[in-house]
Task: structure prediction
Amino acid sequence: MMRAGGGSPRTKRPIETGAGDGMGSLQGRGAAPRREEFLFLLIISLVLALRNLGLILVVPVLAVFADTLEGSTPALAGLAIGVYGLTQALFQIPFGRMSDRIGRRRVVAVGLLLFCAGNLLAGLAHHIFLLVAGRALMGSGAIASVCFAWISDRIPGERRNRSFGLVTVAASVAAFIGFFFGPILYSLFSLSYVFFGCAALGLVSVGVLYGFLPERLPDRSRPEAGASISLPGFQEIVRMPYLLLHCGMGLFMNYFMTSLFFAVPYELKGFIEPETFWKIITPIMGGSVLVMIPAMRWADKGGVRTVIQLGFILECLCSLLLLAQPTFPRLVLSLALFVSGYVLLAPSLPSSLSSAYDSSLFGSVMGWYSMSLFLGSFLGATVSGCLYPHGLPWIGACLAALALAGGWMNHVLRWMPLPLP
Result:
């Protein structure tokens, strides 16, 4: 059909070069926001990964270091390991609300500077109370909720779920690297220098934040933008059993982590020098990759419940080994079983949780899940520090009970309908 003026549809000006009808400029503008979103997510992921790396690097050997300080007791050493989780949980919501008033970037920078100050204090500590104070100060810079809120500001809803996933994966990879390299660095340097290096990582993160990520007002056309992650109250959480069960399993997982990395190094120093601890943890971490890769493929094909169940079975076997008289082979095997179970649970639990909720709720859901992880980190090391004088079997029995409870929770979820409509 011919148009007025004799032109046919084939001779119409191509839309990508047409300025008059606005369609070409619209398409040109479409790619730029995507590039900005990718750069934004890359920087946010880098900032959180560097901070998570700084927190985890010292965990595998912190109990040994704490035992060398003046005034140290097992209970205080456990508190030094876990107290950062308590302050993380306490300051998540206040930091999120503060970021609503003064801006996301400023609050993230404040949190990173608190993290740096805590590392410097811990690095200079000669008394156990200073180490506890330094670790508490590290955790007080609770920026996870602020970063999730910032993502809500900048990323449209249809891409937000994948964005949260990318940030979570980056933090998990950083934790894995921290577990791997922490003992190696301890064998080369004093842990004080590792703390100073972590402070330097925090300063690098601040530089990246201000060098590449300008503050930007949220798009007010989206009602969820410009507000911090709003966590539902406890009464609402009780009425969300799918989320509640995941929070419980996440709490147990991190309880295991800090409990094991308190108790096992304490026992291993009776068999080997602490500086050679890397010779044990490095092959264990390398071998766990061989377990994780096929398991994650299995989870992606719909077997996530089975992978989580396998993770808790490995954690249960690990805890049963702690019930017997500690020997070097048993301690190494228990650590290997724990790490293998942990690398199955750490990515599978948030993946299972995110698949069950709409992306508009994912920030709130992950806020509660993250708080449960922090609380587990605090309780694991603190409770185990109090139990340790009574014997390692007390710690093993507690861990076995939690592993069985986690497996039961996962079994219940097999028969529970997803919350999604």
Q: What stands out?
A: Confidence is low (pLDDT under 50) at residues 1-29, 217-229. The domain at 37-215+225-414 is CATH 1.20.1250.20 (Growth Hormone; Chain: A;). The radius of gyration is 24 Å.
